[in-house]
Design a protein that fits this description.
Length: 318
């Protein structure tokens, strides 16, 4: 029995050594693969990006601003931060190990065009970079990658799935207002039964008023500052998928929120109930070509304001 155990143990060691030797030989044989050409693309040359994660997402640069294509017909502002992160993360990826050169193993590592996430950068009508991102490695700190047209599958340091794995609407710009936060000076909440206005003075004081005469009285400093900070960087929670805009009816507006900057420029956001669920509120920017935005109820509740709740302590708002 002891001899059998020793024999099996020795056989395991031999097989392990052979496996490691073959793997090492494969790495050595293909170590000349150009890492730089694998996915590096000059950010100054990139003018369009195509990413396939389930379905294709198309982004293009127009007049210095990134746009997101929806249904090959409509274009909406894309998130500059998301696009910048994709380009930066791609150029900072580092290959660590060559795993396979066998085309039959592409599916195993999800680096085929069916299961993998395809990333393509274009510039001046030419392909600058074209590769496929596969599944996360067994150590959860690497990701399998393969360049289009190559059989070589590598491990790249990092977990990149969350960076590229987004449905088309998730590439869109969720920022609601275009103001610089410090330039915002007035907020107006118009409900069916009341309008409340909040003004931030040059001295940093807050004045609140209501219809019909809008006589200003001191506002609660902490609550007023919170409203300005929250709304100045307000973002949509999500968007209604293209083709489903009809689910949102704005015949009965529950709130119209207007933000005004120091130059007198105003931007409006209109809200309506989602009659299918109590957890969501619909919103649109009138006159802007973008899909219907969605706010979760908790986010909506934080941006609302009524005159009575905005008064400074001990202020007579009658």
């Amino acid at each position: 029995m002891k001899r059998k155990v020793l024999f099996l143990g020795g056989l395991f060691v031999v097989l392990l050594a052979v496996f490691l030797a073959l793997r090492s030989a494969e790495k050595k044989r293909l170590s000349e693969e150009s890492i730089h050409d694998f996915f590096w693309a000059d950010s100054n040359l990139i003018d369009s990006i195509a990413i396939k994660y389930g379905s294709w997402s198309y982004l293009y640069l127009e007049n210095g601003r990134w746009q997101m294509v929806i249904d090959s017909a409509l274009a909406y502002p894309a998130s500059i931060l998301e696009v910048s992160n994709v380009i930066r993360t791609t150029n900072e990826m580092v290959l660590t190990d060559l795993i396979s050169v066998n085309p039959a193993k592409r599916e195993k590592f999800n680096v085929d065009t069916i299961k993998g996430t395809v990333i393509q950068f274009f510039g001046g009508g030419e392909v600058l970079s074209d590769f496929i991102l596969g599944r996360i490695g067994q150590d959860f700190s690497h990701t399998y990658v393969r360049r289009q047209g190559s059989d070589s599958v590598f491990l790249a340091g990092g977990r990149f799935a969350g960076m590229y794995s987004k449905a088309p609407p998730q590439w869109m710009d969720r920022q609601v207002f275009d103001f610089e936060p410090r330039e915002l000076v007035q907020l107006r909440w118009k409900y069916p039964d009341q309008e409340t206005r909040l003004v931030r003075t040059e001295e940093g004081r807050y004045l609140v008023s209501r219809d019909p005469d809008f006589t200003p009285v001191p506002g609660d400093s902490a609550e007023s500052a919170y409203k300005f900070n929250y709304i100045s960087t307000l973002t949509f929670s999500a968007f209604l998928p293209s083709g489903r805009e009809g689910e949102a009816s704005f015949d009965d507006v529950i709130l119209s929120l207007t933000a005004i900057d120091s130059a007198g420029t105003s931007q409006e956001l209109v809200f309506a109930e989602d009659t299918t669920t109590a957890t969501r509120i619909f919103a649109i920017r009138p006159g802007q070509p973008r899909p219907v935005g969605i706010f979760f109820r908790s986010s909506y509740d934080r941006l609302t304001a009524r005159y009575e709740t905005m008064l400074a302590p001990d202020t007579d708002g009658t």
